Amino acid sequence: MDKLQLSQDGAQRLARAGLHDSIVGCLVGSALGDAVGLYTEFLSGDMSAAAYPSRKFVLSPESQATPFRRDSHRGPHRPGEWTDDTDHAMLLLLSCLHNDLKALDPKDFAARLHIWVQFGFLPLDTLPLGLGRTVGAIVRTKAYLDDPEATARRHWTNSKYNAAPNGSLMRTHPLGLVCLGKSLDETFEIAATFSAVTHVDPRCIVSCAIGTALVRGLVLREVCREADIDSMVNAAIHWYAKHRAQVLQVDPERRNEPGLDVSELRQHAKVESLKDLELDDSYKIGYVYKTLGAGLHLLRLTMRDTSNGTLKTRALAFEPLITDLIMLGGDADTNACFAGALVGAYLGYANLPLNWCNGLRHGSWLMGKAEGLCQMLGVADGEYVGSADKETARDGGRGEMPSEADMERKVMVLQAWMAEQEQEAKKRASKPGDNKWFKWKNWS
């Protein structure tokens, strides 16, 4: 073998390793952002600072993990757990894996959402904690599985076109990974189709298009500079104009639906500071443009911090940036879930904080699915076949759906654990915290 061939082989191996690192970094980085963001979800910035004055978050080991602020929202959770954000992203990934990446089926994903709302995340036997209002209202509709997009559109119309929450943006990053071989316009269209099973507002559609395409571009090293982010936003705006024109040709009655306010999108897509986004504004905490803007800004900051830095600089970037983001409160887990996907794809898994990775509950399960995806994409050795993995089935490999009694038992176990935690807290403090009980049917 001559030197040229050796050089080519070496370059291919490096490129393959880089793709692998970026793909795993995206999936794990998003889950880390979700898990750490839970600490301050729905708090204001001031409340976050009061609850966690050290601004340090330890996920593992549990005996030394940073304790949650004691309230009903965090009561059912253990440190290092991800929330519904990553559950839904994994449902999307499992749907793609189950079809061996040969078909991307929004209706299959919708069916998995329908199951999750009832039974939780079946591969890990976890409850459906954190169900968002919009997703719950749509997916629980009787006719949802007959036509998910039509159901979502009726909900949007009935809300007088005001509903533009971030529930589809938080789950979109796996699509960017399975679209590596797709064109940019194809990626935009696929993102739009998957968003529309629950979120049809143009702001949600274009946000998912941008987020999905950025993940694809970051992994392929087509997005390397801040100017590339701006170009992607411009490309998505141009694509959406064509997309809407095509839709109106087929269905002219949709002319009454609001279009895309490009100026508002640009205002959120490029900000001077995270504070400009007012992430803890109680009236618009879950607004999709807040999550989009936070993710894009954190990616910009990462690029600035590491563009001329050393390898050590890259390895130290993720934790402080995500911490700065979640300390602003608001829908912190979703904001950090999306931002973590982008920053994780850019930095790669090798540069994620080991102390957080080691504390991520179900992290080994997530790594297994990430490795399986990499093998199917041809960037890692091995012969993983998604359709042969029982956990990718809709029932999570259980063989059947849980019964009513199964769900009640799981809730009772959770309640017993929460009561135990409350008793331990009473021993450590004179004032017991707020601890409300939950019934699984009523979580929303």
UniProtKB/TrEMBL annotation:
<feature type="binding site">
    <location>
        <position position="334"/>
    </location>
    <ligand>
        <name>Mg(2+)</name>
    </ligand>
</feature>
<keyword id="KW-0460">Magnesium</keyword>
<dbReference type="InterPro" id="IPR036705">
    <property type="entry name" value="Ribosyl_crysJ1_sf"/>
</dbReference>
<dbReference type="InterPro" id="IPR005502">
    <property type="entry name" value="Ribosyl_crysJ1"/>
</dbReference>
<feature type="binding site">
    <location>
        <position position="333"/>
    </location>
    <ligand>
        <name>Mg(2+)</name>
    </ligand>
</feature>
<keyword id="KW-0479">Metal-binding</keyword>
<protein>
    <recommendedName>
        <fullName>ADP-ribosylglycohydrolase</fullName>
    </recommendedName>
</protein>
<feature type="region of interest" description="Disordered">
    <location>
        <begin position="422"/>
        <end position="444"/>
    </location>
</feature>
<dbReference type="Pfam" id="PF03747">
    <property type="entry name" value="ADP_ribosyl_GH"/>
</dbReference>
<feature type="compositionally biased region" description="Basic and acidic residues">
    <location>
        <begin position="423"/>
        <end position="437"/>
    </location>
</feature>
<feature type="binding site">
    <location>
        <position position="84"/>
    </location>
    <ligand>
        <name>Mg(2+)</name>
    </ligand>
</feature>
<feature type="binding site">
    <location>
        <position position="331"/>
    </location>
    <ligand>
        <name>Mg(2+)</name>
    </ligand>
</feature>
<feature type="binding site">
    <location>
        <position position="83"/>
    </location>
    <ligand>
        <name>Mg(2+)</name>
    </ligand>
</feature>
<dbReference type="InterPro" id="IPR050792">
    <property type="entry name" value="ADP-ribosylglycohydrolase"/>
</dbReference>
<dbReference type="GO" id="GO:0046872">
    <property type="term" value="F:metal ion binding"/>
</dbReference>
<feature type="binding site">
    <location>
        <position position="85"/>
    </location>
    <ligand>
        <name>Mg(2+)</name>
    </ligand>
</feature>
